[in-house]
Predict the structure.
Amino acid sequence: MSGLVLKLKPGEALIVNGAAIRFRTRAVIDLPSRADILYGKQILPPDQATTPARRLYAALQSAYITQGEERARHLALALTFARDLAEATTSATLRSLLAAIETDALAGCFYQALRACRRIIAHEDAVFATAPPLSVPPPPTC
């Protein structure tokens, strides 16, 4: 019986139960048992958590890959970010996704919460891409 099979390229990362692994060569991995994993584009580097949805994703990701008090701290942060986003949006769809994220995260279903958060990130990217650039007046000259 085979579990999850991953094909990873050189340089790709994998996090298994909180341990970060980077591959130097191409690898095929068969995970026959349950493990908390993130790989490839699912991993958000901390320096890329630059928008509200990405900050939520980063907090959920940290809660997912940590344990104990650290998990509780990241979960509390994620819930704060989710509630702040829900208050800031007028979209019923986003509020529904954020409610599902909160429910999943509180139940310990972090992978499902991360999947829903990726949908919010895609929406956020679309909104930012179509938003007009901010018009900032030039500084006064002396």
